[in-house]
Predict the structure.
Amino acid sequence: MSDSAANEFLWYIPNQAEPGHRGDDVVTGHNTLDTLTGHALALERHGWGGALLGTGWGRPDTFTVAAALAARTTTFQPLVAVRPGYWRPANFASAAATLDHLSGGRLLINIVSGQDNLAAYGDSEGDQTHRYARTREFIQLVRRLWTEENVTFSGDHFQVTGSTVVPRLARPPRLYFGGASPAAERVSATEADVQLFWGEPLDGVAERIARLKDLGAALGREHAPLEFGLRITTLVRDTSDQAWADAEAKVAGMAKGIGTTPQDQARRTAVGQQRLLDLTARGEVLDDNLYTTPGKFGGGGAGTTWLVGSAKEVANSLRRYQDLGITHFILSDTPYLPEIRRQGDQLLPLLRD
């Protein structure tokens, strides 16, 4: 098992224009600064390292939200999701360096390459091969801008001449990356710091870790060894029976259209998403307590599969992912704020024991 001191435990803060994300019960002021700050402060108090802030056109800007939360917290690490199609590399590198400097080195970055509403923000790169080639260039150029002066770069997608980003960073932000297609895995194996997986069964994660390590070696990875993370819904209750009763009740609500979002539906053509949806053919419950049924009724991304059970049962399942080499965990359940407290107090101590 990985050294527990090296493990990272993050949550998810709903960065949404509309209330009710995945059944969250906060409606009034759901995305005000006070509400979001309350989540970030609760994360600090209950043992979490920080939280992922999701991105998408029509959602609040992740960098603005992250900057506001960093200013009101002391240890909270925002994992800011960004898209190369939204940002030019030099503009992004400058914004990230500034926020990382002002927050005392707390910034984490999640690079997202999946399709969004491209035309709405002036992007036209819908072809998967070109999107990931652009992402590779984006990461390569950003890394140089963070660590070198007077950078000149001429690629197929981006060009800069004599570019120097300030402030300079002694330790650039860690870059997280997802994606399950062959094109995505080639980028991750060579360029990312952390590969994020959604909630696949243990055998699928083990197979992907082995493939990514082999790819990195074959393609000549030049960075520190790739690390691995899991982004998944964890439904924790005092007893196993209560957890499953609540999980089934939530799924019944989803079957009636309650608690699903347009973002969940929009990503359903992605390779990684399809891998999750295909799990339902293997059974409703895989491994010990990986619940696949939410994917049948609109759960998308991290909401497609859930780990369900008591804190001890869910901790045991997460330890099995640790045994495979997972060291970064991004967990969540709704309603978000009460679950920050419950899982921080009941689940995290078991994972750190």
In short: The two ends are 12 Å apart (CA to CA). The first strand starts at residue 8 and ends at 13. Residues 1-5 have pLDDT under 50 and may be disordered. Residues 19 and 28 are 8 Å apart (CA to CA).
